[in-house]
Each structure stands twice: as C-alpha cells, then as structure tokens.
Amino acid sequence: MKPGKFIGVGLGPGDPDLVTVRAARLISGASIIAYPALPQTESFARRIAAPYISGDTHEIVMEIPMSRQRAPAQAAYDHGAAQIAEALDLGETVIVLCEGDPFFYGSFMYLHARLCDRYEVEVVPGVTSVAASAARLQLPLAARNDVLATIPAPLPDHDIRKRIEMADSFAILKLGAHIGRVSALLDQLGLADRAQYIERATLDEEVVLPLSQAPDPAPYFSMILATKGADPWLKPPS
Amino acid sequence: MKPGKFIGVGLGPGDPDLVTVRAARLISGASIIAYPALPQTESFARRIAAPYISGDTHEIVMEIPMSRQRAPAQAAYDHGAAQIAEALDLGETVIVLCEGDPFFYGSFMYLHARLCDRYEVEVVPGVTSVAASAARLQLPLAARNDVLATIPAPLPDHDIRKRIEMADSFAILKLGAHIGRVSALLDQLGLADRAQYIERATLDEEVVLPLSQAPDPAPYFSMILATKGADPWLKPPS
C-alpha cells in the first residue's frame, strides 16, 4: 500500500481568520489531524483550527510535558511520530496542526526530523507571530536594506545586545521570566522608549502595553518589537 | 461624512492558496482596491489576489518607476496616497494589495506613512517569502534559542558576514547582481554547501537549485536560505 502524506500546516498567530485558504481547506477535508497539547491544557493549535475541523475527523493528541530537561519532550515526539507513522503506513494522510509557522519555533520540526526520510512531506507556511504583532502594532519591520533579527530572550545579555546592535528592527521572543533583564538591557541601549510589548496578538485577549508597564513574568505568547526607524522615507511627509 | 478605512492586506508569497481567509474575504467584498505595478508589467500583487477580485471592484493602479533615485518612487507614492485619500474622504474603504507581508519589505509602508495619521488603518499580516521558502525547501528555520536574521544582499560584505556569524539561520534577500559576491562570502564562511537557492517560491515557475548553480544575476523574487543546524534534536534519530 502507498503510504499517506505527512502535512504540517501553519495556522498563523491565533485569529482563525489568519489561517491560509490552503490550510483551511486541508483541515476541513482531513480524516486525521494531529497536534501537540500541554498536559491538562486546551491545545492552542486546535483552538485556532477549530472552525475548520469537521465532526468526523480523527484526532491524535500529542501530550508534550513541560520540563527543563529535553528528554521527556523528545520521548513524547517519538511517541507522536510513531502514532502518525502508523496512520501513514495505512495510506492515510495526516495533517499536523502548527501554531504560527511550522518551521519558526514550532514543535512540528521535531516530528519532521523523525518522519521526513520515510514519507512524502508537505509544509504549508503560516503567518508568524512576528508579522502579526507588527501588523497589530502598526510597526513597519523592514524596508530597503534593513536587517530584521528575531532573538529569543533566554540568550545571555551579551548575545542579545550584539544582535540588537546589528539589526535595524528586532523581535524578542520567549520573554517569560527574562522580561525584566531584557527591559533593563533595552534601557541601557536607549531603545526602551521605542520598544513595544504585545501578548496574544490577534486574539480577543490581546494586550498591548508600553514596555515599562509589561507584566513580569510575561506570558509565553508575548514579544517585544522595536525598530530603529532606519528609513527616513518611512516618516510621514511633513 | 465619516472617512473610510484604509486596509493593507498581505497576500503571501505568490500561491493564491496562501492568502489568508481574512484577506480573501476582504478582497472579495472590496469596492476599491489599490496596488503597485512596475511600468508595463503585470502587478504581482494583483496576480496573487486575482481569484478573489470580483468584477465590479474599482482598481487604483499605482505605477512605481524603477530607479536608483528614490524621489521618483516617492512621488508615485505621494500620488497614490492622494488617490486613496480621495476615496477614503468619500467614506469608501480602500484595500491595498501587498505581496508577502505589508510590513516586511513592502511598498505598503510608504502609503502607511502618508495616511496613518489621518485615517483608521488596519493591517492584515501575510505569509512572508522567508517562511514560504523554508516550507518549500523543508528547512527548519529556528528552534529553541536560535536567532534568525533576514539580510539584504546589497549590504557590504563586512556587514553581511557579521550578521551571518551571529545568526543560527539566515535568509539573504534582494540577491540580484549581488549573488556572486554573496556566494563567494558563503564559501569563505564554509556555509556554501548548506545554503539553498530558491526563486519564485510557491509559484508554478518556482526554481530550487544548489547555490553553485544559481543564475547570476538572480531575479528579484529569489533568496538564499541556510541554517547552521544548531539544534541537535532536529536531526533525525539514528
């Protein structure tokens, strides 16, 4: 029997309207979907896709433990990949639901690594949280020869600083308990006033705040965005 | 009269299926759309949106001259913004069609700068060419604490080199006549074998090549993508 196709589908930042036409069609027609969920928590990916899921779709839920150790999560991906492989071997197409974009900080990458050598794979890109946050903040990210950097907050100060210094615009992700340290750094760099804080962009619960008023710790789905405004032509003509 | 709303709509990388549900709905219901076009050339933005445009939509075409001088293009944006403002003042909503994402190297930013102080604005984010190219190449871009940098090829060698050295994954855009210089640089950095070349991602005319076989000059809609593969957990388990 010809094995089924393994499809990773980006769902965008959260608003179901920001799912692509292709992703919506694939999900509506799916016989099997798979998605990650934290223990005892609604899957965010499934929440975004919910309007498109039909009643008779079989769902593979991959419970991913929260842990600083990597092995437990990797074991969960092993198990999820085995369940998906079983369906693929029966000739079924399996749609994996991915928050944002599958290859931009997505857990899909761990399934892809486990299955890409053995099965036909398709990846459907999605709107990233960075693009969505910029849209909500109405903050142009990159024009002309601007460099955009996406920087995870857990990196050491020195690394974050160097990357900010070399970028025209930057997004700082995975803030969590690091937000105070990152805010102090932006202050030192004279960029705190330009930096904007946004959480849960495009959802009903979206919050936008000046960086000085951002919560500490910050929730997982939050980021800081800033541009040094390198292109003078982007200023409104006076 | 209450002025209309000014909406910039990201259309994604090229395949009309990668337009978001929201963008498709806005375009289908639009009474006025506006978009840029190079002289004597089909507008790429309009081509992507075409399946969603209804027959009785009024179209504002902004012809943007190709020139190394910036003033002629800026004058064209002045003129386009004035046409859009005229419609907004009559209470009409105007949908601006944007390739990719409106705030990621998009000409929409120049209209936004001219109109954002005077009108209600919405920005609908889109799938970027970087996310789409990674999906087509099946190249994971960023996991865990990886830094992703998007770097325009016209920058000097020294600047490109420093930004590559500080990133885990990078996209080099706007290759054009710079592709030979950039390829030589990647060779020096020992990254040429990891770098992949893609043009017109997600379109029927898409081309994927090893960097050594890429055309010189490269077309405008092309990029080089590479990852240093920082996360060992992304390797398929052996």
Explain this structure to me?
Two copies of one chain form a homodimer. With 238 residues, chain A is α/β, with parallel strands linked by helices. Helices cover 29% and strands 21% of the residues of chain A. In chain A, the strands form two sheets. A five-stranded parallel sheet of chain A has the order 3-2-4-1-5, with helices on both faces. The longest helix of chain A is centred in the middle third of the chain and has 19 residues, at 71-89. Strand 6 (148-152) of chain A pairs antiparallel with strand 6 of chain B, so a sheet runs across the interface.
Averaged pLDDT of chain A: 94
Largest interface, chains and sizes:
A-B, 68 and 68 residues
Rg measurement of chain A, Å: 19 Å
Number of helices of chain A: 7
Assembly status? homodimer
The shape of chain A, in one word, is: elongated
**Assigned CATH class of the largest domain in chain A:** Alpha Beta
| Structural domains of chain A: how many | 2
Strand content of chain A: 15-25%
Overall SS class of chain A: alpha/beta
CATH-defined superfamily of the largest domain in chain A: Tetrapyrrole methylase, N-terminal domain
H-E order of chain A:
EHEHEHEHEHEHEHEEE
